[in-house]
Write a structure and sequence with these properties.
mainly beta, Jelly Rolls, Immunoglobulin-like, 8-stranded antiparallel sheet, 6-stranded antiparallel sheet
Length: 574
């Protein structure tokens, strides 16, 4: 595709007002206090008095230079050996329960002596950078940080001092640094090649302080007392953003689910019925009163199942399998995992109805299975089974009819101390497409289909940073596509159903100010881009919209086209 710089200029010249005329990206030099990244020549010198030291048992490996990576590109990192290159927050002698405390005497092993550049090993107090000059804040400005946290991850506070005299404190958090996209080292202060590490980016929106200026940054209050904290870099500017708008068409899915944490569980005393139409299910959530009495299917009271923790057993004679963590399947082989995820649910080999969370039936409550061979009706009741390692019981019942395929879920009282999320829903056997989660309690009816059809979709590959290319990709292009078009606009029409055009279920989420195409499909994806000018700076914060449509044969509707989701790109300089 030809870059659209000229066209963008024509589009915006008469319509853009100055949003942030004085804003520009600034890399902020921090008051680095630790040499914690391995650069060229710094490995295998654990006792060098002015050399590298790890903040825990490993570090980033920049010995071949600063990596070329989109995450790092907007930041200025230290790339010179023998320099302080991170802001360390914590106490190296206490990290990882004191396993890597500096040694008193140089002996060449993997733990070094306290280096000459570290006057005080306790850097857990506020670590402050006073800026050389105030940085003006406008409505679009945010401040970003790159950082790592060892030994399980955690959080820390960033306190920003303003020229007006006020302060603003925000909390940033990160996962454990182990495994990621960046070369890492091991063996503590030896800095030998090791497992890759991750880097986290956190940003703080400063729009509420427009008209003020930033003068000082302090880091403090690490939540993980045995974790090592390394703040690598900081920048200040208007961040470019991508926001997905709406959804593509035409999509249909065989599965549905809701994933929620325990505190958000809102299905107590709710019945959920799934009626098999032969072309999918009609799923209705309604108020309920909890599980029906045991014995309603089997007058003899059914069979009490002996379930292990995180296991499953074959139940009855109709091919059903019951899982200890709240599911019943037509067949065996589904995951016994205690931590439910949509990906696992949608990939399980057997058709299943899910009320999946981490339960402990081997030490609490009873699980009773019933069946009626004549009608094909089966039922499992979880009666007072505790969430794992809690005294918090749940009362759940699942029905499944092997003849009709109809099913039902009945929730009674459910505790709120369970350690894992819930996944509630249904999925047939084998791999299914992900429809995205649904709020069951807020949805009057859920309709599933007999087969999955993936809608046309649009993804942003890069952010719309001034002076760069905004790269996008159309995905899931149907094999029947004859040609496609992509377009850019200055507004979101918010037309959520184009049925009046003969495209029911499709949306228009970008005005048609600039069209690219027609283009011929080559496989299931199509890449396109928009070259963004580096100036003027009054483009900061300006919003562009883009979307795609494809035309196929035979046509899927009277108009003959389907559309993707839209993307709203907010222009920035970082």
């Amino acid at each position: 595709m030809t870059p659209l710089v000229c066209s963008l200029s024509l589009l915006t010249a008469a319509t853009i007002t100055a949003v942030s005329a004085n804003a520009q990206s600034v890399t902020v030099p921090l008051n680095y206090n630790f040499n914690g990244i391995v650069h060229a020549g710094e490995s295998n010198l654990p006792d060098d008095p002015v050399g590298f030291r790890s903040i825990s048992d490993r570090a980033l490996d920049f010995s071949a230079g600063i990596p070329v990576d989109p995450l790092l590109a907007p930041y200025q990192l230290i790339g010179i050996p023998g320099q302080l290159d991170i802001v360390h927050l914590g106490n190296r002698n206490l990290v990882d329960n004191g396993n890597w405390a500096f040694e008193a005497i140089a002996n060449g092993n993997n733990i070094g002596v306290q280096p000459a550049w570290l006057a005080n090993v306790d850097q857990s107090g506020p670590q402050t950078t006073v800026l050389a000059g105030p940085l003006p804040i406008t409505a679009d400005i945010s401040i970003g940080f790159l950082y790592q946290i060892s030994n399980g991850g955690g959080s820390f506070d960033v306190t920003l001092t303003l020229l007006s005299g006020g302060t603003h404190t925000a909390t940033l958090s990160g996962v454990d640094w182990f495994q990621g996209a960046f070369l890492g080292t091991q063996n503590v202060d030896l800095g030998a090649p090791g497992t890759n590490l991750s880097i986290t980016e956190g940003r703080i929106d400063l729009g509420a302080f427009a008209g003020d200026a930033l003068t000082e940054i302090s880091f403090s209050n690490q939540s993980n007392p045995v974790g090592g904290y390394a703040i690598l870099a900081c920048n200040f500017g208007a961040q470019a953003k991508n926001t997905v708008l709406g959804q593509g068409c035409i999509g249909q899915y065989v599965s549905f689910y809701e994933q929620m944490d325990t505190a958000s569980f809102d299905l107590t005393d709710t019945d959920i019925t799934g009626t098999n139409t032969g072309a999918g299910y009609v799923v209705l959530p309604t108020p309920g009163t909890g599980p029906l009495a045991v014995g309603g299917i089997d007058p003899l009271g059914g069979t009490v199942l002996v379930l292990p923790d995180d296991g499953q057993v074959v139940a009855g004679t109709l091919g059903m399998t019951v899982g200890s963590n709240g599911w019943m399947a037509l067949g065996a082989g589904n995951s016994n995992g205690f931590a439910p995820t949509p990906a696992i649910m949608l990939g399980n080999p057997s058709e299943s109805v899910y009320t999946w969370t981490d339960l402990q039936p081997d030490t609490s409550g009873t699980v009773t299975y019933e069946e009626d061979v004549a009608t094909g009706q089966t039922r499992v009741t979880y009666d007072g089974v505790n969430g794992w390692n809690t005294l918090d019981p749940v009362f759940i019942q699942i029905d499944y009819n092997v003849n009709s395929g109809d099913w039902a879920i009945r929730f009674g009282v459910v505790g709120f101390a369970n350690p894992e999320d819930w996944i509630v829903g249904y999925s047939p056997a084998g791999v299914s497409a992900d429809p995205g989660g649904v709020d069951i309690s807020a949805t009057a009816v859920i309709i599933t289909a007999a087969t999955d059809i993936i809608p046309l979709s649009l993804a942003a590959i890069t952010r719309p940073v001034l002076g760069t290319s905004w790269d996008l990709e159309v995905n899931d292009i149907p094999a029947s596509t004859v040609f496609g078009v992509t377009f850019f606009g200055l507004a979101d029409p918010m037309l959520l159903d184009l049925g009046f055009l003969g495209m029911p279920g499709c949306q228009l989420r970008s005005s048609l100010d600039l069209t690219d195409g027609p283009w011929l499909p080559s496989g299931s994806t199509h890449a396109y881009n928009l070259a963004l000018p580096a100036t003027p700076l009054n483009l900061l914060g300006f919003e562009l919209f883009t979307q795609a449509a494809t035309f196929g044969t035979p046509p899927v509707n009277s108009f003959g086209a389907i559309s993707s989701n839209g993307i709203n790109g907010t222009l920035g300089d970082i």
